[in-house]
Amino acid sequence: MGYAFPEDALVYECLSSAVTAEGERPRGESLDCSSGLRWNLSNQCGQLVTVIAGGDDVIQTVPYWTDTPREPASCREQLPKQYAEDLASNLAEAQSQTITVSKTKKKGLFYVFADGQILVIDAVAGAIVKTIANPTVPFPNNCTGTPMAGSWGDSVFANNHMFSASYYRNATIGPDDGIYVINTQTQTLVQRVPSATRPVHVFYVPYLDEVWSHSDGTANFDVIDARNYSAVHEDVIAHVNISGHGKLVFNAALDSKAHASNVNEPGAFILDLETKASNGQLSFVNFTGQPISGGRVTICPGTHSLAYSKVNRHAYFECTSVRDPTNSSNILLYPGVVEIDTDDDTVVNQLPFTGHLATTPDEQFLTIVNGRERSVRIIEITPIGQPDLYFTIPLNETPGATPAFYPMSDHYVMAVPMLNTNKMAIIDFGLVLRCGANCTDPGQTVKYVDVGYQNPPGRPGALTTSRSVDAGHTFICTPAIYDQGIGCYNPINDTSIFIGGAANPIRNPARVYFAPGALAGAPENVNALFNCADAATTRGNYPTLAPVVNQTLIKSAAP
Fold first, then answer.
1. Which residue, 108, 339, 385, 511, has fewest beta-carbon neighbours within 10 Å?
2. Would the pTM of this model clear 0.85, i.e. be above it?
3. Domain extents for the chain?
């Protein structure tokens, strides 16, 4: 499995200038890299990986260059090079796919995005400890007939702030779609950045310190400076002709290169994260009709989830289903996963599997969560030219799509909540490795824990067809809409808790995310229930939050 996270890993930053526990220092200044050792930063330095590690009381800074020719000899032995690169890539990749991985075992809080409110949960205490006040432009809700009826999108954590997407279904009340910014040290709302329509997925790019928000309405990206919450770039073009739902994949190993998906276009759009533009020589790779081994050609009407591994420097794209042109509800074919070589962006294979893609944080395995087949396929990623197939783990119910990964002492566990039961599947990659490629009993690698019902018993998909999950400190938590609460599992002591429910119901807990940090002040006696009769009926006076720093957004050039 490669390297696991150290038990005391606290913070990860990957920036163009050095960052220490004392704060940011510009290039050219000397930097303590260990006791008694100093070296100078070059103006032409490569990317610096700084891993801050230590217990709650002791913080040690361990810098390491990813750019080998300029690697300072005096710091070479501070951390194994492969470990540093693995750790940096693991954490960046986790954010890049909207795949969550526990980035810290330091204490923190879970943020629940529900109807008309954001609730703060202390899983250790098993309680709702705070509610974040509603701004003048109200949080989205699912109360029918109200102007603020809408949905929560993804959230990402950066620089002690949570960036949370929201969008609304009533287009007549003005441009209210945007990204709410929450200070996770004070648990307060500090900013709201307007965005293009339907910002569902957001991504934190740590080595640029930027948050990228994908608009399903335009199939473009809006970019936010994660240090001062200002919108720095809008409409980074990520489609050819048709807008649609999409995602972004990137990795430190690819420098500033990234790939974007679009469910309505048959390939991937290639972006330069630093210049905020498409690659001038190659902007779109068409995945349909590409010749591959065995005399086959690829089929890919559109692309959805996507993943990358530095093991073979290949990217993987989930292709959408082929539908009957005379009856779109009739699915004719699930074409599988397209695999490309990111060095030249050529199609090398189409795997005969379908489902939501995610790599394990060490990028040694590709996981494919298939709701239709009720399975998780495990594919070992090996150097080019070697077989990749591992085995399939059957599940006892329909899974939610996006998993979370949690680091144990020497391996990861993968958490996949179920849509129509009160269970969450926990796949132990320690057991996956021991079972091996020729595993005769894949079912032994998974167990189920109680987390509450997402949909009503006996009514599959009645409330939702998705279920989020996130991990942090000692818990993995997931919403339970039908049971009106949050189910949390502790993989350290193998216990589950439920927060909310009949005693203090949470209306439509759509998403949950973890952020490091302690509660500011004393816990509140929170009544979690949101009453639709109290839902806002007008837009209010926007803005009441701090203004967007850069009101004039920079337009990206067309490809």
1. 385
2. no
3. 9-79, 108-130+395-528
